Amino acid sequence: MSATKIIHSVPSDPLTGSISVPVYQTSTFIQEAPGVNKGYDYARTNNPTRKVLEDVVAQLEEGHSGFAFATGLAAIDAVLKLLSAGDEIIAVDDIYGGAYRLFTHVYEKLGIDVNYVDTTDVSNVANAVSKRTKIIWIESPTNPTLKVSDIQKIAIIAHSVGALLVVDNTFASPIAQQPIKLGADIVIHSGTKYIGGHSDLVAGLVVTKTAELAEKLKFIQNASGGVLGPWDCFLTIRGIETLELRFKKQSENAFAVAAFLKQHPAIDEVFYPGLSSHKNHDVAKRQQNELYGGIVSFALKEDTEAAANSFVTSTEYFKLAESLGGIKSLLCHPPQMTHASIPREKRLQSGIRDSLVRLSCGIEDVQDLIYDVSQALNTVSSLKEVLVKV
Fold first, then answer.
1. For residues 246 and 195, what is the distance between their CA atoms, to the nearest angstrom?
2. What pLDDT sits at residue 288?
3. What are the pLDDT digits (tens) for 268-304?
4. How far apart (Å, rounded) are the C-alpha atoms in residues 78 and 326?
5. What's the pLDDT at 382?
6. Active site residues
7. Which of 88, 153, 135 is nearest to 115 (CA)?
8. Domains in the chain and their CATH numbers?
9. Phi and psi, residue 85, nearest 5°
10. How much of the chain, in percent, has pLDDT values that exceed 90?
């Protein structure tokens, strides 16, 4: 979707002509008679500000309907409520720690089985599905090792057994990738990340492909009540208006940082789909409009938690925090932060090494980001020298 379409997908206010979407900060709406209203009765069920956001997000993903939730995990939770006891999920092995925690500690107790596989190999998915499989759940790219799965091929497998393909599109954003056009049934975003873009809100977004799925998700949204408030809806809409500009700049910065890391002697492995050396580069190039996002992960040759801690506590512009996708650069150590809820053995199996660091490149001058990474890597080298001496 072009910048022009994105900007003009946000409507002006028909009542006043306001070029910004009004914030309808109200809990309820006056009715002319019982059940007779202007399309709104109670703010949990619907809100005009939220309706604009949901419509805009549906347009971004070229889906049927959008739904806004209080957090990304609330959005994931709503989709999981489509399942029943005895159903099975096939999920990408390198999954966000919060999703893993929800799957394992909440839904498995309710009789829903989860089978984790490396979905970058389509044969793994084909071999894992069964009659009980109701959802195939992928992130593409994944968090934090940026694995890329072939959405189109996995959609065919999902539909062959009557399952839904759900794609967490947070890392690619609708600017780079539109999974529904590739065959996905449901798309999820942590709106906290690229879509909001300024690290000042938390939000979850769901887009459905069909009216039937939209009706089910609308019921769940209203029945469960985890909706996004009007002010955060307004902030998310504001973020969408600059999404393309930000995402392109962040992608440019990340590519330059990844290229720098690739040749640095302290680095063992770099994870960035934009690099030709990335094992899923060809799939990413085909699916992501040759935009690869602002996230770069890497593992140090000194593959220890101590080495990672030295790096993440030594940067100036990259701030140590648990998020990504904002205009200010962030970094984290997934084994101790975002993915701490996943057992170490399972983390290692999915490629999350002890020294793995995740960078979220913002829109700063790229030479400053490269300098910051470089000087922080010097602290890791210094640590190694100290350890050798001891």
1. 10
2. 96
3. 999 999 999 999 999 999 999 999 999 999 999 999 9
4. 25
5. 65
6. 44, 96, 168, 193
7. 88
8. 10-240 (3.40.640.10), 244-389 (3.90.1150.10)
9. -55, 135
10. 94
